[in-house]
Amino acid sequence: MGRFVNPDNSAFQKAVNSEIYVDKTGFLSYTNKVIDTKQAFICNSRPRRFGKSTTADMLAAYYSKGCDSENLFADLAVSDTEDFHKYLNKYDVIHFDVQWFITENNISEIVNTIQNNIVEELKKEYPDILDSDVTGLPDAMSIINQETGNRFIVIIDEWDVLIRDEAQNQNIQEAYIGLLRRMFKGIEPTKYMALAFLTGILPIKKLKTQSALNNFDEFTMLGSGNMAPYIGFTEEEVKALAGKYHQNYDKVKRWYDGYLLNNYQTYNPQAVVSVMLRGEFKSYWSETASYEAVVPLLNMDFDGLKSSIIEMLSGDSVEVDVTTFQNDMVSFSSRDDVLTYLIHLGYLAYDQNRRRAFVPNEEIRQELSKAVRRKHWNEMAAFSRDSEELLEATLNLDAQAVAEGIEKIHREYASVIQYNNENSLSSVLTIGYLSTIQYYFKPVRELPTGRGFADFVYIPKPEYRSDYPALIVELKWNQKAQTALQQIKEKQYLDSVLDYTGDILLVGINYDKKTKEHQCLIERYEKK
Fold it and tell me: Which residue range or ranges hold the AAA-ATPase-like domain (predicted)?
């Protein structure tokens, strides 16, 4: 049993012993299925606070020869599988966190430092096989395999930290990628490697148009495949926790849901655990991952980037091409590169089917709003000023002023928000009500209601509920504002909102494409 070679199970034991532990050992059924196959090279990238280290610790505890983990896993899901004992603690495991090796003094020798520490432990494990002149980690594993037939499982946590933090250091980048290639790619690694698992924030770096390690199966925030249930907490898991800890599930959902992975609604685990244990609904994001990292990105002068961020903060989604990002920190060349990186960081979510990015929940909406305010965007100031006037007119039931405000935004910001004929009014509306960020949750688009879908529903945050009514907004094209109001009533849109608010304003808006005029009607519904 060593620090990096055949570690014990103490790290995963701490996770299981925690007051809240959600069983994700079902993932071991997948790794057991692919072990010793071409699919045994796995890179799983996800944002901070999404359980990367716990997953790595779980794999080490299950496979490592350095411990006996039968009792640890006895009450967990994997223990019920047919091959549970077949792979349990049967492998030489190398498990290390790249971040742990980094110090200010040794950064230029980081790759050699990693190899030297691990090879020294392998020499203690196999003193009769490895000579003193063996220094390379790939060589050491190959020699051990040749002499004993033993195959390795290699688990690297924070594998991409050098790609992110040493982005400008070409020598370190080349040395590190070179080590990974020698360890995992080619004929020899297929002989000594039973399973490789890399976990980090970024997918594997691209060299020109190809992955530096193209034999890895990648599971990311852009496409998680069958790993989706094991990245974050699922809806059912959060519902169970909310019931156990007496928290309002709908409120938890508004604050922390929103990541869409292979049709799973995925929650940030650390945020959910924090709200269950503390009972405070707030942003826990900046406690572990400061938005300072994204502030420089938001100010990059790429065409359409700022307006896209404003649209998403307002509650809309934007189309994004995620294929151009080079998975590093130096190759940003377009709006889409920045948005893709923000998806990997967890500041944006991604709908794989629609190929659109959006702000996932209230927690991230607050963090991204803070980052934008730090940059003092002129665009943001202009939108905010007009939006505050529009919201004030709405709350005062001044339908004429609302119509004029929507028309102004439609006319002046048309080129900025980049809409088409089908969704232009929706885009204008989300931008128009940008100022609701402070008082309302992210607007619900097409909220399922009694007999249909309301176009927009703005639900006030609990602390503002006594002063701010909910807003149900219905949009029409080439019809009448009265028709929109009538639809809200006839299809019982009110029923789905009554439990979350006090008074409700019904807002009907129509746009006449021929005259390019907007009409608005507003009615107040007083909750009994």
Answer: 18-206
* Residue 179 CB-half CA count within 13 A: 21
Three-state SS for 403?
helix
Q: Mean per-residue pLDDT for 22-47?
A: 95
Task: Mark whether 467 and 527 lie in a shared domain.
Answer: yes
State how many domains the chain has.
3
Residue 293 CA to residue 342 CA, distance in Å, equals 10
15 and 137 part of one domain: yes
Q: In angstroms, what CA-CA distances link 461 with 265, 399, 465, 468, 522? A: 22, 24, 6, 9, 21
Q: Examine the domain organization and report whether 112 and 205 are in the same domain.
A: yes
Torsion of CA 3, 6, 8, 9, to 10 degrees: 120
pLDDT at residue number 528 = 66
State which residues form the domain around 446: 377-528
- 213 and 260 belong to one structural domain: no
461 and 492 co-located in one domain: yes
pLDDT band at 278 (very low <50, low <70, confident <90, very high): very high
- Those residues with Cβ within 8 angstroms of residue 91's Cβ, 6 or more apart along the chain or in another chain: 63, 64, 65, 150, 151, 152, 153, 194, 195
Using one digit for the tens of pLDDT, what is the confidence trace for 392-446? 999 999 999 999 998 888 777 655 444 434 456 777 888 888 888 889 988 887 6
Cα end-to-end distance, the chain, whole Å: 67
If asked whether residues 363 and 442 sit together in one domain, one would say: no
The H or E element that residue 81 is part of is: none
Question: What is the pLDDT, as a whole number, of residue 418?
Answer: 46
